[in-house]
């Protein structure tokens, strides 16, 4: 399973793309590991921010989940390699609900895990083996305001919806647009209206699906200029007006304003000398800044948007 997962994580790697267009005032900071603390990450694949601003990281190759305060100071770490309680196998995605509970796509164990905000094990759902709802390689996870859990299964190319108890509700494989199908979906996010944003990586696009399962939008290009290539991460901010995408094979992060129809990208920041290497998971913090996992550099970066 480890070989399978590492293969998924290393598909389609290509040369770095330089910074293409930035017309917003922003700065790039490394927040984990901090300069004065040695908290070594190994191939982190996902990052989330809870309602209090704390940062949760899926430290994939260390097989653990780590929580940090907003400054990058470690609060707790849970996990080691295994398939029992308090163990993980290459977890690829994390998210939080409105109460601060942490949900984990425990990829190598083909299961979902729920932790409390202080890192205590609440539940694991590894017995989802029915014909509908079966998981094989969950690699994206999101929770809506009603507590429903959405999981992208990378190898089965589908999105599965569960209730707060981990019980199967529905799943999406085919899109209702001329038989179109998802292809290796990875990062997912859900807005306040329940619309689901999917990084459909194998199709090199972002797909937006409403609560009825209807496709609302498809983005093969952002702002008709930034062509996507194997996007793995997607996030939407609290206003619902801005999305962030990790366009992984181009080694860049894209910020797109749905309202203004403008896009900005970061790939190489000459001033701060941050060169990205296979960015994956992405989220917004409470101030609208972008936080993402710069995976092959084993660090978490923040793009501070100056408004």
Automatic annotation (TrEMBL):
One of its GO terms (molecular function) is zinc ion binding. Keywords: Repeat. SUPFAM superfamilies: NHL repeat. NHL repeats lie at residues 40-71, 75-118, 169-212. It comes from the Bacteria. InterPro entries: 6-blade_b-propeller_TolB-like (IPR011042), LDLR_classB_rpt (IPR000033), NHL_repeat (IPR001258), TRIM-NHL_E3_ligases (IPR050952). This is NHL repeat containing protein.
């Amino acid at each position: 399973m480890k070989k399978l997962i590492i293969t998924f994580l290393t598909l389609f790697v290509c040369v770095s793309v330089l910074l293409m267009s930035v017309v917003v005032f922003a700065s790039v900071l490394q927040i984990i590991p901090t300069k004065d603390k040695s908290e070594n990450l190994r191939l982190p694949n996902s990052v989330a921010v809870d309602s209090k601003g704390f940062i949760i990281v899926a430290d994939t190759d260390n097989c653990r989940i780590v929580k940090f305060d907003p400054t990058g100071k470690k609060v707790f770490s849970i996990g080691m390699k295994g398939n029992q309680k308090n163990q993980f196998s290459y977890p690829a995605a994390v998210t939080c609900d409105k109460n601060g509970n942490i949900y984990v796509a425990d990829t190598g164990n083909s299961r979902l895990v729920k932790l409390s905000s202080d890192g205590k094990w609440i539940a694991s759902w590894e017995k989802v083996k029915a014909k509908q709802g079966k998981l094989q390689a969950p690699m994206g996870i999101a929770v809506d305001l009603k507590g429903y859990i959405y999981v992208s299964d990378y190898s089965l190319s589908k999105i599965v919806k569960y209730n707060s108890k981990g019980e199967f509700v529905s799943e999406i494989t085919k899109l209702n647009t001329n038989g179109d199908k998802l292809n290796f979906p990875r990062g997912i996010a859900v807005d306040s209206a329940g619309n689901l944003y999917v990084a459909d990586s194998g199709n090199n696009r972002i797909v937006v699906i409403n609560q009825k399962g209807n496709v609302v939008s498809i983005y093969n290009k952002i702002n008709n200029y930034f062509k996507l290539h194997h996007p793995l991460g997607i996030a939407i901010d609290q206003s619902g007006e801005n999305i962030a995408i990790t366009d992984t094979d181009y080694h860049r992060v894209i910020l797109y304003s749905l309202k203004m129809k403008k896009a900005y990208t970061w790939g190489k920041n000459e001033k701060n000398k941050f060169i990205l290497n296979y960015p994956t998971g992405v989220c917004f913090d409470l101030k609208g800044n972008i936080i993402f996992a710069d995976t092959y550099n084993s660090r978490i970066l923040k793009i501070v948007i100056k408004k």
